[in-house]
C-alpha cells in the first residue's frame, strides 16, 4: 500500500532542491521502508547507487540495473498507476517515480499546460527531459518555467516538426543551473539552418556532456563546429558525441588539441563514414590515448581499418569500446583487440562467429585470436545480433574471461538454439555474472533444461529468455530455481503512456 501522496511531499521537495539528491533519496527510502514499502525503498537505494557511479558504461551499472529491473517488473503496474496522468506527457523509464526521463511534446495540440507541468515536477523529481514537436508558444512558456532549473539531462529529439526558432528559444533563453548533458539536433528539425550560428549555453555552468546530431556544413564540419560552439565550452566537456555527420580530418585534428579539450574523456562518433585517412588521423592522435570511452559504431570498421588502428596502438587508457553496427568480421575483431584491453566491449550488430575461418579461430592458439582470448580487464561484453552458433557458445564456455564477466548479452542470435544453450550451460560457475541475455536465440525445451541445471546461473540477478519458444513445464523448472530472476516475456504495458522495459 502506498503512503498518502501528501506525506511524500517534503521528501520530494528535498530531492528536488538538494544537490546532489542521492542522500535525500536514501532518507526517503528509509522512510518508505519504515512504512512497509521495502521493495520501493530498495529500488531507490539502487537508483542512488547507479547515479553516483556517474559512468553509464561501467559494467557494475549492469548488475545494479538488473536488480532494479526485477523490482520494477514486480511492482510496475502499482507504481506507474500512482503517477499522474497528464496530457502531453509520457513517462519514460521504470520507477515509482522516474529518474530517467519524462517525454514532452511541445506542439500546440499536445502542450500539457502550465498546471500539468507544475504537477509533473512536483510529483516526480525528473532528472532527464526529452522534448520534441517544439512549437514557438509552448517553447516560450516552458522556457519561462522554473522547473527547467532542476533538469540534469535535456534531449531535444530530432523531429522535422520542430520549429527552428522554438528550438533556439529553449536553448538560449532558459536557466539550466543543474544541466549536465545536452543533446541537440542540427539542421532541419534542430538547431539552425545557419550552422555557423553559435548557441550559447552560458546559463548551464555544469554542462559537461554534449551530443550533436546531424547537420550539413558548407564550410566543412571542422570549421563549422568551431564556429558553432561557444569558445569556453570545449574546456568544460568530459563527453562529446558527433552523430550522423561527416567528420573530416580538420575536425579530428581540432579534437586532438588537449589545450582546447583538457577534460574530454569520452568521444562518440556514431555513423560518421570515416575514411582510411580519418582512421589513421584518429589512431595516431594524442586524443585516443587519453580517452576512457571510445564509441565508433556504424563507421564501416573492417580488416583494413582495424589494421590501421592496431598498428598505432596500444591504447591502455580506453576502458569502454563500442564498435557495434560495423559488419565486423572475426578477423577484424582479433586485429582490433591487439590495441585495446577494455572493461566493457560492445560488439552488437556485427558479423561475428568467434570461431573465425580455419586458422583464424579465436582462441589461445591463434596468432590473432589470442587478443580476444586474453582480455584481462573485460567484465562486460555485448554480442547481440551477430552470427553466433553452437561452436561460438562452446568457445565462450571455455573462455577465461567468462568467470570475470558481470554482463553477457547474446540476444538475437537464433543460430545458437538448443545446441548453443547446452554448450553454454557447461560453463563453470561465474560468481560475478549478474546479467545473461539469451533473448530471441531459438532456445526450446532441451536448451532450457540444460540452463536450469547449469552452474552458470548461480549468481545471476537476471536471466533474459524473452522471445524463445520454451515449453511451459520447462519455464516452470527455471522459475523454481531462479524465481523472478528469469524473464520470459516483456511486461505488458499496463498504461498506454509509459515506455521503457529495463536494462
Automatic annotation (TrEMBL):
> Where do the TM regions start and end?
none
Provide this UniProt record's keywords sorted from A to Z.
GTPase activation, Leucine-rich repeat, Repeat
Name one process (GO BP) from the record. Answer: nucleocytoplasmic transport
Query: Do the record's keywords include Repeat?
Result: yes
GO molecular-function annotation terms?
GTPase activator activity; small GTPase binding
Q: Which domain of life is it from?
A: Bacteria
Which Gene Ontology cellular-component terms appear in the entry? cytosol; perinuclear region of cytoplasm
* Repressor listed as a keyword: no
PANTHER family assigned to the protein according to its UniProt record, in alphabetical order:
RAN GTPASE-ACTIVATING PROTEIN 1
Q: What is this protein called?
A: Repeat-companion domain protein
Which organism was this protein described from? Isosphaera pallida (strain ATCC 43644 / DSM 9630 / IS1B)
Amino acid at each position: 500500500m502506498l503512503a498518502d501522496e501528501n506525506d511524500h511531499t517534503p521528501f520530494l521537495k528535498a530531492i528536488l532542491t538538494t544537490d546532489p539528491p542521492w542522500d535525500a533519496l536514501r532518507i526517503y527510502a528509509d522512510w518508505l521502508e519504515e512504512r512497509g514499502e521495502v521493495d520501493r525503498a530498495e529500488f531507490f537505494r539502487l537508483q542512488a547507487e547507479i547515479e553516483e557511479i556517474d559512468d553509464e558504461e561501467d559494467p557494475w551499472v549492469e548488475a545494479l540495473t538488473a536488480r532494479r529491473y526485477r523490482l520494477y517488473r514486480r511492482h510496475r503496474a502499482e507504481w506507474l498507476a500512482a503517477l499522474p496522468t497528464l496530457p502531453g506527457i509520457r513517462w519514460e523509464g521504470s520507477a515509482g517515480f522516474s529518474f530517467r526521463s519524462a517525454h514532452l511534446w511541445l506542439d500546440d495540440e499536445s502542450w500539457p499546460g502550465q498546471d500539468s507541468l507544475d504537477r509533473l515536477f512536483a510529483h516526480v523529481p525528473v532528472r532527464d527531459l526529452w522534448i520534441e514537436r517544439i512549437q514557438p508558444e509552448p517553447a516560450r512558456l516552458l522556457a519561462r518555467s522554473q522547473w527547467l532549473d532542476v533538469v540534469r539531462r535535456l534531449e531535444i529529439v530530432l523531429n522535422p516538426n520542430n520549429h527552428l526558432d522554438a528550438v533556439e528559444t529553449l536553448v538560449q533563453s532558459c536557466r539550466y543551473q543543474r544541466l549536465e548533458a545536452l543533446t541537440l539536433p542540427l539542421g532541419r528539425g534542430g538547431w539552425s539552418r545557419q550552422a555557423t550560428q553559435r548557441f550559447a549555453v552560458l546559463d548551464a555552468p555544469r554542462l559537461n556532456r554534449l551530443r550533436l546530431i546531424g547537420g550539413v556544413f558548407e564550410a566543412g564540419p571542422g570549421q563549422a563546429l568551431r564556429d558553432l560552439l561557444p569558445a569556453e565550452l570545449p574546456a568544460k566537456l568530459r563527453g562529446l558525441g558527433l552523430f550522423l555527420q561527416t567528420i573530416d580530418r580538420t575536425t579530428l585534428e581540432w579534437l586532438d588539441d588537449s589545450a582546447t579539450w583538457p577534460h574530454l574523456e569520452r568521444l562518440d562518433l556514431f555513423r560518421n563514414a570515416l575514411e582510411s585517412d580519418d582512421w589513421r588521423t584518429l589512431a595516431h592522435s594524442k586524443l585516443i590515448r587519453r580517452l576512457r570511452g571510445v564509441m565508433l559504431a556504424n563507421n564501416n570498421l573492417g580488416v583494413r581499418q582495424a589494421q590501421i588502428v592496431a598498428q598505432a596502438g596500444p591504447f591502455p587508457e580506453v576502458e569502454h569500446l563500442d564498435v557495434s553496427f560495423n559488419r565486423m568480421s572475426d578477423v577484424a575483431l582479433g586485429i582490433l583487440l591487439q590495441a585495446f584491453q577494455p572493461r566493457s566491449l560492445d560488439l552488437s550488430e556485427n558479423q561475428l562467429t568467434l570461431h573465425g575461418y580455419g586458422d583464424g579461430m579465436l582462441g589461445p592458439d591463434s596468432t590473432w585470436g589470442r587478443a580476444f582470448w586474453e582480455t584481462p580487464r573485460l567484465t562486460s561484453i555485448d554480442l547481440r545480433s551477430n552470427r553466433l552458433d553452437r561452436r561460438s557458445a562452446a568457445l565462450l564456455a571455455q573462455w577465461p574471461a567468462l568467470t570475470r564477466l558481470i554482463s553477457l548479452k547474446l540476444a538475437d542470435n537464433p543460430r545458437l538454439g538448443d545446441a548453443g544453450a547446452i554448450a553454454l550451460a557447461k560453463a563453470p560457475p561465474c560468481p560475478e555474472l549478474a546479467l545473461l541475455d539469451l533473448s530471441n536465440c531459438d532456445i526450446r525445451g532441451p536448451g532450457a533444461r540444460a540452463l536450469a541445471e547449469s552452474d552458470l546461473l548461480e549468481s545471476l540477478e537476471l536471466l533474459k529468455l524473452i522471445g524463445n519458444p520454451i515449453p511451459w513445464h520447462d519455464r516452470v523448472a527455471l522459475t523454481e530455481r531462479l524465481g523472478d530472476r528469469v524473464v520470459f516475456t516483456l511486461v505488458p504495458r499496463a498504461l498506454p503512456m509509459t515506455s521503457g522495459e529495463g536494462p
